[in-house]
Amino acid sequence: MDDLTGFQRDLLYVIAGEEQPSGQDVKVEIEKYYSSEINYGRLYPNLETVVNKELVEKGQLDSRTNYYDTTGKSKEVMEERQEWEEQYLSS
User: Fold this and answer.
1) pTM given for the model
2) Per-block average pLDDT, block size 10, for the chain (91 residues)?
3) Which end of the chain is more exposed for a tag (fewer CB within 10 A), N or C?
4) pLDDT score recorded for residue 1
5) Containing H/E element for 6?
6) Could you tell me which residues come within 8 angstroms of residue 27 by beta carbon, excluding any fewer than 6 positions away?
7) Domains of the chain, start order
8) Are the beta carbons of 50 and 71 closer than 8 angstroms?
9) How far apart are CA 86 and CA 83, in angstroms?
10) What is the pLDDT of residues 1-23, one digit of tens each?
C-alpha cells in the first residue's frame, strides 16, 4: 500500500465497506469523509489506478453504471496497513 496515495487508500476502505458500490456510491461516501465535493476528474482516474493495481475489480451493473469490489490482494494490503498503524497507535 506504500505506493498508493492517501486518497486511493481511502477509496479502498470505502469500497471494502460497501456491497459492490457504483462510482457514484463511492463518490458520496468519500465526500462525507472529506467533507467536500470530489470531482469526477479526481475520482475516476484514482479508481482506475486501484483497478490497474489489481486491488479493486470493476464490473458492469448496467450499460452506464460500473460497480467496484475489493480483491483478495486489497484485503491483504489493508490488513498489513492496519497492523502497521496499530503498532504505532498502541504504544
Assistant:
1) 0.90
2) 91 97 98 98 98 98 95 95 93 71
3) C
4) 67
5) helix 6-16
6) 38, 40, 43
7) 6-89 (1.10.10.10)
8) no
9) 5
10) 679 999 999 999 999 999 999 99
Written as one letter, the residue type at 40 is Y
Residue whose entry in the numeric block shows the C-alpha cell 504504544: 91
The whole-number pLDDT of residue 90 equals: 86
In sequence order, the β-bridge partners of residue 56 are: 70
- Give me the DSSP letters along 16-71: HTSSS-BHHHHHHHHHHHHTS---HHHHHHHHHHHHHTTSEEEEESSSS-EEEEE-
Look at the block and give the residue holding cell 450499460. 63
**Residue 56 phi/psi, 5° resolution?**
-140, 140
Cell triple for 51: 483497478
